[in-house]
Amino acid sequence: MDTTHHILVVDDDPRIRKTLEVNLRARGYTADLAGTGEAALRLAARHHPDLVLLDLGLPGLDGLDVVRGLRGWSGVPIVVLSGRDTEATKVRALDLGADDYVIKPFGMDELFARVRAAMRRSTPPEEQAVVETADFTVDLATKQVLRAGTRVRLTPRQWHIVEVLAREAGRLVTYEHLLREVWGPAYGRETNYLRVFMTQIRQRLEPDPPRPRYFITDPGLGYRFLPSGAAGGGLGGAEGARGGRE
How far apart are CA 78 and CA 65, in angstroms? Predict the structure, then answer.
């Protein structure tokens, strides 16, 4: 087999991490080990693993949050390893983007068959974990925006809008798509919400908010995020000041 395959193991139990590491190396894989969700996202952004073995019951940032964080920028295969065998938990993990779900305790032969199958289904290349502009950096793995190394304070809703646009950098994201991604499937016509939040985002991130360089309005259609900036500033500076829904 290809000895270059690199696996990220995420489990808060050091015995399970060690057992998986030994079995991975015996089968020709290399491995990174993480005991928390925060460490997992840092290692994934740094080393770009070929697959993630992920426990759901983590301290702090739990496994479902890790799936969500990874799917913000990466298509890496994720195989969940969990003692939670309820249907609702399985559906939630798979809906968030996990590729497979293995119940603990598991046999190593079955686990590695699932690992091989998930890797066969994966389709590189993956997106960048970090999107840089001349004025700020969007870190999709750690879910934050940095300016000169300092975190810019955004509300969860503001961050989600930035995240969706950064994942589609350079492409049009329609109002309807953005509303459903951020507010949920019941939304699609409430463009006034977007105007309010986009004004707030521009005030925090644009060097000249009335003449935005990065968060550009396509009138009647949606928004584009342009990491290289729009020449001379784009459309849609002061789009609104009231009517948003947190």
Answer: 13
Share of the chain above pLDDT 70, in %: 89
Cα 173 to Cα 21, 140, 209: the distances in Å are 41, 17, 20
The count of C-alpha atoms lying within 13 angstroms of the C-alpha of 167, restricted to the half-sphere facing its C-beta, is: 20
pTM for the model stands at 0.55
Q: pLDDT tens-digit profile of 160-184? A: 999 999 988 888 988 988 998 888 8
Per the structure block, which two tokens stand in for 225? Answer: 């995020």
CB 130 within 8 Å of CB 44: no
Degrees, nearest 5: CA angle 163-172-181:
45
List the beta strands (DSSP E) in 25-181.
30-34, 51-55, 78-82, 100-103, 130-132, 137-139, 144-147, 150-152, 173-174
Exposure of 116 by Cβ count < 10 A (0-12 exposed, 13-18 middle, 19+ buried)?
Answer: middle
Counting every residue, how long is the chain? 246
Residue 111, SS3 per DSSP: helix
In sequence order, the β-bridge partners of residue 216 are 224
Q: Which residues contact 135 (CB under 8 A, 6 or more apart)?
A: 147, 205, 206, 207, 213, 214
Distance CA 223, CA 212 (A): 12
Do residues 230 and 224 touch, judged by C-beta distance below 8 A? Answer: no
Q: How far apart are CA 172 and CA 152, in angstroms?
A: 24
